[in-house]
Amino acid sequence: MKTYQEELDEMIDAVIKLVWNYTIFCALFEKKNADREVREAHPEFFLTMHDSLLCSFCVTADFLFHEDKNGKATSLCNLVRNFEVSKPDFARKLNAKICAKKNIIEKIGIVRNQACAHRWKAKTPQEVFAEADVRLSMMKEISDLARLIICDLAEEAGGNRKENLEKQQLSKNTLQCVANDAAQVMRAFAGTAH
Q: Residue 155 contacts by C-beta under 8 Å, 6 or more apart in sequence?
């Protein structure tokens, strides 16, 4: 059985990947005319990247915010639940932030469950995406929420975890480097003929 610290480290890793995923998604699919032309010149690649990044985001977000009443699953919700007795105000504050985004979390869960992880016979993936209507702003809200929750949990755990996150993997500099790498991909495709 995993310790709380091991679960926290696992969640930190998942949040970092979620935030990086969102950053790459934004960089590759910004609404710029030059980028649109690149995407249109290489539709197979960018359609695959779009769907892969979106599904990966939805799977990770669902994993992070999975509510398991038995507490057997590793998730941010279950890590917060650990504080309901020892630090009820802290747990209430984090639960309120999660509950405020419940509708978005559920929509992302629909995509994960019905299009990315399973294929329902009653609906095509296109119908699932249309029904869930996941937007970039929703991805940002989930990315920001995951980041905020993990930073609060990391700060509570001590040991400079929060400071390390904010100075390294989740720093503005690191996120800009991730975005720059995606922009470099766009430039590389702009220089090639289809």
A: 161, 162
H/E stretch holding 66: none
Q: At what angle do helices 172-190 and 4-28 cross, to 10 degrees?
A: 40
Tokens of 97: 């932030």
Looking at this protein, which amino acid is placed at residue 123? K
Question: What's the token pair of residue 83?
Answer: 């504080």
Both tokens assigned to 68: 């398991």
- C-beta of residue 66 within 8 angstroms of C-beta of residue 75: yes
pLDDT tens sequence for the chain (194 residues) = 889 999 999 999 999 999 999 999 999 998 887 788 899 999 999 999 998 999 999 999 999 999 877 778 899 999 999 999 999 999 999 999 999 999 999 999 988 888 887 776 777 878 888 888 888 999 999 999 999 999 999 999 988 888 888 888 999 999 999 999 999 999 998 877 54
Residue 73 DSSP symbol = S
Residue 110 · residue 129 · CB < 8 Å: no
Model pTM greater than 0.85?
A: yes
- How many Cβ atoms are within 10 Å of 27's Cβ, its own excluded? 20
Q: What residues have CB less than 8 Å from 125, skipping those under 6 apart? A: 114, 115, 119
